[in-house]
Every structure is written in C-alpha cells, then in structure tokens.
Amino acid sequence: MSALAKKIPTRRRLLLASDRSDRSRELASILQSVGEVDTISTADIPDNPTGRFSGIVVDINLRSAESVQRVRDKLRAESYSSLPRLFVLADALHHGSMQAWALGATDTIARPLNADGILQRIRAAFPDDDGYDATDRGTALNIGVAAAHKVMVKIFQKLPAGVPLNFNDVVEAETKILKAIKHSSLREWLTTVGCHHVASYRHCLFVTGFAVAFAQHLGMREDDQRRLARAALLHDVGKAFIPVDILDKSGKLTDEEMSVIRQHPRLGYDALAEQGGFPPEMLDVVLHHHELLDGSGYPDGLHSDQISDIVRLTTIVDIHAALVENRAYRLPFTHAKAFAVMEQMGGKLDRHLLNAFRPVTMGSSY
Predict the structure, then answer these.
(1) Does pLDDT of 233 surpass 50?
(2) Residues 161-189: what's their mean pLDDT?
(3) What is the pLDDT, as a whole number, of residue 314?
(4) Average of pLDDT values for 340-357?
(5) pTM score, two decimals?
(6) Domains of the chain, earliest start first
(7) CA neighbor of 321 nearest in space, from 307, 339, 303, 304
(8) Average pLDDT score over residue span 26-46
C-alpha cells in the first residue's frame, strides 16, 4: 500500500455500550456525525472487538455494582488494551472519574453532554502516527532523560540564583519524556536516572517516570499525560530553596530539620505563583503533594474531597518513588515491599488509584 493510500481517512465505527433506558439516544446522535455507531447493552459487550471498532463509548451508572462488574470483566481483557475507551460520567465529581480510570477509561466526559466537546474527544482518540521507528528506542530514552535533567538544572541551580523558571521550559521537555517512556520502558527510565548522583534530581526524575507510566497505563489521552509529566517534574521545586546540607544529610533529620523540609511545598508554590504563567493545577500539585486524605498531611491539612485527582495521583507516585530509591540512611525497598507499605497507609491514599497503580509497580523492577 502506498504512503498516500495509508493517509486516506476511513469512517470510524464506534461501539456505544449503554445501560440507560433510552439507550443513550442523544449521545448516539452526536457520535453519528463522526462515525457509524453500534449501540448495545453493557451485557452484550463483545469479548474480542479487535479490528471491528475504532473505539468504545461506555455510558453506565457507576453507582451500579452490577454494571461496573460487567464492564470491568470485559474491558480488562487484552483485546481491549489498544482500543480507545471513553466513559460518560453522571457528574464531574472526582470519584466518578477515578472509578472510570480504574475500569480502563482512556478519557471521560460528563453530563450535561456538550456535542463539540464530545466530538473533540473522539477525534483526539485517533492521533496521527508520530513516525516512531523502533531503532530509535535508545535514542529516545537518552533524549528524554537529558530533557528532564535540563529542567532539574534550571530548578535546583538557576532558580535559587534568581534565574526565572518558565512554563515553556517544562513544556519543551514533556514531549521527549513521554516518548522516552512510551517507546522504551519505565524500567529502563528508572535504571538510567537511578544512576544520578544528585538525590533531589533523582527523586524528581523517578516521580516523573512513575507518573507518566501510570498515565500511559491508565490510557489517559496525551494532553493528560502531559499535565502529569509537568506536575511531576515541578512537584518538588520548593526544595531548591532548602539548604543542601539538610537535603543531602546522610542520617536521620532532627525535628527542626524536618520542619524546614516541610516548608518546601509553600516555598515552591510562592515562587511559581509570584513568577506567574503556571497553570493552577501545577501550583496545586506543588503546594499539596504531601496532603493525605485523612487530613494528616501538610501544609494545609486538607481532607478527602479538598484534594484534587492530579494531586492524589502525584502523591501516590511520590511516595512510591521515595520508598524504592537508594537513600544514604537505608537500602531501597523492592517495588513489592513499597506497594505493601502504601497499602498499609489505609485511608491516607486514594484506594482506587492505588489499586490501579499496582500493575505499574509490578512491571518497573530494575
């Protein structure tokens, strides 16, 4: 087939799985403007959709345990792993979106339905080929790590010296990081950045790797993967203002030193907020990535619904990265032991996201 022939667009065929009494008539009508739509009950979702559909849209009541179990049993099959999966939520509350992610959603929309927004999501689920060649695997990894390292230098060396950190500095690196992890592996990323001699750099690069791999595992659309990459890169920016002798101390920190360390979320937030140009959700991660759902975190002691999805996810990968890193005062935990420790944290972490994170940790040993 010629290159020109490959670019000829074909009409999408979408599978709409619905448990609504009206079989999601309004949604089906919207979808028909971009493709052929087969509407079925969630009970009739096929075991193997390979080659038959361009994507699946799931419109169910996530509060129905029976419907959720049916969909979970179908979508966890390998045959659905490469198929875009758009979930329709009854509302925009974070609990619904997290449950959808855990069920395998690659994107979500919320009622009331917005035709333009839905069609934009459908089109975004079928991105153009990025032209990747498997022979570029090692090169992509090295380029991605180098781009992330460049951001670390700007954070920990130039920012304290008064050189501004720009949002574009982070955006410039994100595409290279996403490509590196997508086309190599999380394990290779961790192996490479794990050799870094600067502990603060190493931790941020670990967190970034876990965040991007988690987002890709969940099948999030690329825009959301980018959001998480940016947030992970910057989450510890406040440590640039913490004395190095405290950051690099080989022994246990004193209570006074720990108090200084705990200032880093606020210091990072204040620096970026004063500079301007950074999205609110990035500032949210910088300020709140040490908050815990039971209110025992810092600096603001937030509880439950006060903590956003992106912060919840970043907190999980941040804790896991810290546990598996080599520290001067202890040996690194295995990924299995680190995950077990996090499971024992009870209501401090989001259980839906933590359970969804398990497969990422299992495939990341290095």
Answers:
(1) yes
(2) 88
(3) 97
(4) 94
(5) 0.66
(6) 13-124 (3.40.50.2300), 135-362 (1.10.3210.10)
(7) 339
(8) 89
pLDDT at residue 364, rounded to an integer = 60
The per-residue pLDDT for 128 is 40
Task: Reply yes or no on whether the pLDDT at 12 is more than 90.
Answer: no
